[in-house]
Amino acid sequence: MEKPALEMEASALWERYVEWLYQHKELGLYVDVSRMGFSDGFVKAMEERFAKAFKDMEKLEGGDISNPDEKRMVGHYWLRNSELAPSYYLKKQIDETLEGVKAFAGDVISGKIKPPPCPAGKFTHVLSIGIGGSALGPQFVAEALAPDNPPLEIRFIDNTDPAGIDHQISQLGAKLSSTLVIVISKSGGTPETRNGLLEVQKAFREKGLDFPKQAVAITQEKSLLDTTARSEGWLARFPMFDWVGGRTSELSAVGLLPAALQGINVDDMLYGAALMDKATRKQSIKENPAALLALCWYWASNGIGSKDMVVLPYKDSLLLFSRYLQQLVMESLGKELDLDGNLVNQGLSVYGNKGSTDQHAYIQQLREGVSNFFATFIEVLRDRPPGHDWELEPGVTCGDYLFGMLQGTRSALYANKRESITVTVQEVNARTIGALIALYERAVGLYASLVNINAYHQPGVEAGKKAAADVLALQKRVLAVLNEASCKEPAEPLAVETIAQLCQAPNQVEMIYKIVLHMAANDRALFAEGSRGSPRSLKVYTGECNVEELYD
Ligand SMILES: O=P(O)(O)OC[C@H]1O[C@](O)(CO)[C@@H](O)[C@@H]1O
């Protein structure tokens, strides 16, 4: 009888390794699933589901409405092979956008397009404003592929944290005058991105700079951002297509423009992705690396996300891969309902940083603690560019240590019956990064079919956005109430419970206390008496009577 994979002797394990090893020759990419415990019986039992998943992906690529809730096609695969687009019009849009991105980046790098305050100069920096899928891909790619001295250096604003925004602007300093600002938002209305834009526009005004002459928008046609950019005459606008989701947009203008401006070869990224797309269309689990990943995810987590996926790239430049995958996988698979409307609460949790750094952070728990995960090692064979290596000690380089750490951790986990997948690439370059993106996009698509969910919408995010808007609306009411009390003679400091009554929101008293605490920390409210840690003892006022706000 076949021994369980996690208890095999060395020779049987070697057989299993050889039998299951996947190699993509041209990409120099391997997927090893031998350290996952699935049996042949499990693979057999999954074949029918996979047959359906392959068909679902075929229909998706053919232009079906594969995102039924939003009534949208799902076309990120067409971006790297526009011949696949279901209409000539879409193909033309893809080709023209790609050409436009490359031509614009080329003109900026050559200095044909230059910042107005520096007639003799060139753009030196990019400031990219966006969040979620409109930031994570460009951040991952910049970290992985930007050369040491890129033609334009990139910085990111990906939050509505004022101190974080100030930091980015002050790091640019005088270089703001030679900074190209790219605002990325598919919807064109995401509050964090809008706030980043408003803050940056203010910084431009304060320095007497002409923002539109240094600004580019990447957004859906006719979105608020698009209309603003058009009416203000921004330097350029590039489209985000309705049928490309934020988390799968890295190989659209969203990722390609920032990459091209940093001197990264975007054709190579697209080519790598196209090669991987071709490989992952194969309708045989063993010969399809994305199907192998989806199979392992299903096996490890019982098809219900019962285990987490720890992603460990052993390469500094791949640091952000785990963060990028976190959104791709969790926003796609974390769903309450399946496609038939049943309550399923699906998902697959992803976390990770990089090896060997994480060996000194949490591998202790992975090896000996709670066994609620499976690992994915990302291995890079080429340590450094050729000609730069040297031996730290006889016969051993620094890269050999990194290799040893990865192999040692993989073996140590296996010895304690902890499962792992290893994805190996020859080197980190534009082609392999494109291929890795395409590999995981397809694995997510296949897995979503296996568990019968829509991977391409994100209804859960809306609830948080709405709740945040409610908090801001409540804050405005609190301010109005405080303002009115402060305009009385003498001013009347109010208890938080009284504020809640006056706002007609007695059930929101805790939120009102938090709002007041936040305003006080930012000198927008004052405490007449009481201790901040004893909410009931507080008496609050604004310190000044703002008549304008009162009658607003
Ligand atoms: O590109 P947008 O529309 O600004 O959205 C940013 C992100 O917000 C989300 O809609 C929700 O977090 C993501 O799916 C998306 O990538």
UniProtKB/TrEMBL annotation:
EC number: 5.3.1.9
Catalytic activity: alpha-D-glucose 6-phosphate = beta-D-fructose 6-phosphate
This protein's UniProt keywords: Gluconeogenesis, Glycolysis, Isomerase
Gene3D superfamilies reported for this sequence: Glucose-6-phosphate isomerase like protein, domain 1
InterPro entries associated with the record: G6P_Isomerase, Phosphoglucose_isomerase_CS, SIS_dom_sf, SIS_PGI_1, SIS_PGI_2
Keyword Glycoprotein in record: no
One GO CC term, this protein: cytosol
GO biological process: gluconeogenesis; glucose 6-phosphate metabolic process; glycolytic process
Pathway assigned to this chain's UniProt record: Carbohydrate degradation; glycolysis; D-glyceraldehyde 3-phosphate and glycerone phosphate from D-glucose: step 2/4
A UniProt-annotated Pfam family: PGI
Molecular-function annotations in GO: carbohydrate derivative binding; glucose-6-phosphate isomerase activity; monosaccharide binding
Family: Belongs to the GPI family.
Protein name: Glucose-6-phosphate isomerase
Organism: Selaginella moellendorffii
